[in-house]
Write a structure and sequence with these properties.
heterodimer, A: alpha+beta, 5-stranded antiparallel beta sheet, globular, B: 14 strands, UAAP2 (chain A), DUF1989 domain-containing protein (chain A), DUF1989 (chain A)
């Protein structure tokens, strides 16, 4: 492994992360304590409008869930990253990111002032600058989250399939901007009702 | 003026303002029609349809009556007040040139070739978005009315496109809950078998269009089907109403 790129950050429960990841990097997200949803968005580092698209990724792989072999596509059909290792086995990309407003819809007005992923996303885009903002928030990936869809048209949030130490590793297929919210949601089982830290590590192969 | 109709041919795009409590009925002019739709709050186009929020709040893998179509701000943009079909796809996006859904199987009765001809819906949607000062950054997951893509129920979530889901005369009605900008394309669904020799193309082999019917509607009352559907649907309606209070 070369030292050209080396990243090792712990993202605390409810915190965010934003940064560039060069093409070729192996990026690993580790669920340190288990059952932690990691809401993640990817962008072409040189063209933010060419961003991760959940629906194009789902359609082109012909399946709902992300796992080893899944290629994450932009809305223009370009490969952003490929999942090369996955000890969890299954990740959601249809459940979206929680927000204060969607919490009110889903759980009631008492949740209006709780932390949420989209607040974190917006804070991170402000920190990053460079014109990145709300319009650039597409539909995200929820690593380690389990949202099964059924043939009769149903959708459920189920207990995480993850466990302490499980990880997913991606290979960047182009220069990426990566935006992460380590989900603070406490109203459903996506974080086991107890948000916990995750670890982000990256190396050039 | 209480209403009007527009006939949109297949493989075309259009956009319109739909005022609060007007209804928009889409009616298939031929078998296999598809309408890929984007929705924005007219007064603030950074507020847009959010398919994940819409599906997860109402525990659904599809769009169907009487669901509310929710924005990223928790407001009901529109309610699906009725439809002749119980499934409208919202999880496989719209077509763009060069991408044809290579990974998705076609259910019984489908053709062999996957991937519609032409450039897909993207070009027309971007054409219409540009007229309103919007661009690629404003794209979101479309609802693909009259198309069905369902999971088979296995561990990886394998999806199958169902050909022949919509027939001539099939319809869906949306009621705007706030003033909307509606952007739509009648290009084929990206998973529709290629038009040549396929049952999903119109009798002439061309892509079928739709008729848009715009009418007045009463405001949703206490017994409205969307309000009574789920507590989440009712709260989204209430948030839309609160912004007009």
């Amino acid at each position: 492994m070369s030292d050209e790129f080396d990243l090792d950050d712990v993202i605390e429960a409810g915190d965010g992360w934003i940064g560039e990841i060069p093409a070729g990097t192996l990026l690993r997200i580790t669920d340190l304590h288990g059952n932690q949803a990691v809401d993640t968005l990817f962008y072409d580092a040189h063209d933010y409008a060419n961003r991760y698209s959940a629906v194009d990724t789902i359609r082109e792989q012909g399946a709902l869930y992300l796992t080893t072999g899944s290629t994450l596509l932009t809305c223009d059909g370009d490969a952003l990253a490929t999942i090369v290792e996955d000890t969890c086995g299954r990740h959601d990309t249809l459940g979206g990111a929680c927000s204060q407003e969607s919490n009110v819809v889903r759980y009631g007005g008492h949740t209006r002032y709780q932390p949420s992923c989209r607040t974190t996303f917006l804070r991170m885009t402000r920190k990053w600058g460079r014109g990145l903002g709300k319009r650039d928030l597409g539909h995200n990936i929820n690593f380690f989250m389990n949202v099964p869809l059924t043939p009769d048209g149903g959708l459920t949030f189920e207990d995480g399939v993850s466990a302490p130490g499980k990880y997913v590793q991606l290979r960047a297929e182009r220069d990426l901007l990566v935006l992460i919210s380590n989900c603070p949601q406490i109203n459903n089982p996506c974080n086991g009702y107890d948000p916990t830290p995750i670890r982000l590590t990256g190396r050039r192969p | 003026m209480t209403g009007y109709t527009i006939e949109v041919p297949g493989d075309a795009a259009d956009s319109l303002r739909l005022r609060r409590h007007r209804t928009l009925t889409l009616r298939c002019l031929g078998p296999g029609a598809n309408v890929s739709m984007l929705l924005y709050a007219l007064e603030d186009r950074t507020e847009r349809l959010n398919v994940p929020d819409t599906l997860k709040a109402q525990m659904s893998a599809r769009v169907a009556a009487p669901m509310a179509l929710m924005s990223d701000m928790g407001r009901a943009l529109a309610s699906v007040t009725g439809s002749s079909l119980d499934w409208h796809d919202a999880i496989t996006g719209h077509g763009l040139s060069g991408l044809g859904g290579g990974g998705v199987g076609v259910g019984a009765g489908g053709g062999v070739a996957v991937g519609a001809g032409g450039g897909g819906a993207r070009r027309g949607l971007l054409d219409e978005l540009a007229k309103h000062g919007l661009d690629r950054r404003d794209l979101h997951a479309t609802v693909n009315f009259f198309s069905k893509v369902a999971p088979v129920g296995d561990a990886r979530g394998t999806l199958v496109y169902e050909p022949g889901h919509a027939d001539e005369g099939d319809w869906v009605t949306l009621r705007a809950e706030i003033d909307l900008l509606v952007v739509l394309s009648t290009a084929p669904h990206p998973l529709a078998p290629a038009a040549s020799g396929s049952a999903s193309a119109g009798a002439s082999g061309s892509v079928p269009g739709v008729r848009l019917e715009i009418d007045e509607s009463p405001a949703p009352g206490a017994e409205d089907a969307t309000r009574r559907f789920r507590a989440e649907s009712a709260r989204a309606l209430e948030l839309a109403e609160r912004s007009h209070a």
